[in-house]
Predict the 3D structure of the following.
Amino acid sequence: MGEGPAAARLPVHPDTQGSGRGLEVIGAEYTQEQIAVGEWVRRLAANSARGWKAFYHTTEWQRARGKALKRDHGMCQRCRREGWYTKATTVHHLKHLRDAPELALTMENLESLCAACHEREHPERHRRRIANELIPERW
Ligand SMILES: [Zn+2]
Ligand SMILES: [Zn+2]
């Protein structure tokens, strides 16, 4: 399973690139591999005390995460679009894991983010964590 064919299968419309909206289209045409990944992730979540978090402890995720960070040169992609160079600490699922476990390992669904940008993507959780990370205010 190389990087090339998987990337070629999922073109992202330039108008929607990075917004996550272009990924709506993918929903209708998951590959066999993505469907298998989706079943695997759902099963992991159902059978583990950690629930959905169990996925983040798998070597499959560690590998996909490493690939995404390498592709993004270890830089936060949101900050980069605003002209900042910030080290990424997290790889975020544009379509959240629970909503589209089929895309859990799909490179086009992954985005390297810094802690501050990632917090902004998940306003529903961890207000607490951001206070502990001593993120310098830059704006
Ligand atoms: Zn950022
Ligand atoms: Zn996230």
